[in-house]
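INFO batch 0412 | record 1 of 1 | parsing
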Amino acid sequence: MATPPSLPDRQAVRLRVNQYLEAFFREQLAQAASIGPAYYELWGVTHTLTMAGGKRLRPYLCLLAYHAYGGTDDRTLVAVGAALELLHVGLLIHDDIIDHDTMRYGIDNVSGYYQKYYRREHNLAANAARHYSDSLAMLAGDLLLTSAHTILLDSGLAPAQIMVVQRHLQRALFSVVAGEQFDTDSVLREKTTVDSLRIAELKTATYSMVAPLLCGAELAGASVAERTKLSLFAANLGIAYQLCDDLLGSFGDPSITGKTNQGDLEEGKVTYLLQATLRRCTVSQRTGILKAIGKPLTAHQAEKIRTVMRRCGAVAETEALIDDYHQKALIGLASTHLPATTKQAFRALVVSLLQRQR
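INFO prediction complete | emitting tokens
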């Protein structure tokens, strides 16, 4: 009987990736300083945000799959994990621009930092400050997206391995942009016509779950058939993960999540939770919710909507759907040829992801 693979420790992966990212940013900051203080500051704000939080989930998934399928030399895989993380943070920065969010990980994001800067240093009105700050945030996101590829070139991976990773990054980015477009357009459409689960698959599942897992598995030499099964597991887990995120978006504790629990409502974001609420609530409640969302809310208004969500059964329905996708993910995992002990490690990870508070 084959010896089960030795799986990586999640906190150890987080530490190693953080160390790699710190070294990367030191180099970029030194180069930026030679250009000028303003550019150095932009890199500094981006560095602060990147290191302020984050579970480093995507690097861990990549290394987990790599070891699960027999990979043994993960020194260069840390660089792959760092590239996945920079892709993630770059996308978050852009997503925050779209959503008009100014906080991430409990601190000012890039746009939030520069909004305060432009109002303080240049006495700009709020709209002007937002324009300039969002412009710099867009550039910061661009820096991280391109840096993900730069890291790969300096990683020590063989050219064929770099191509494997770049293909997964490209597919992930291609999918995310489609999901972002659908998500942005959904605010302008009749809520019941939006396919919120398809958006969750495109916007979250592909780059957060599918790409990291398949990247690690392919670099370890997993067969196409095995990667197909792993992809089924990852896609269903990713949708469940996004549904959890939607619940946290309205019911999460900001002191734990590091971001507001009114943002989705104020944006008018068409989540499955909102759709279930509009299907289940009374006509008068539906009218009130549609009139309120999509604009700034008082804490009282937001809590009234949350109360309707709970009482009409929308929260329970969303939780049931999370469980449904959870079970589908487990079926996909069971179909793989991974050792039993490895599958158990994956199942434990799934539970931690779907019962999180941030």
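INFO post-check: Strands lie at 103-104, 107-108.
INFO record closed
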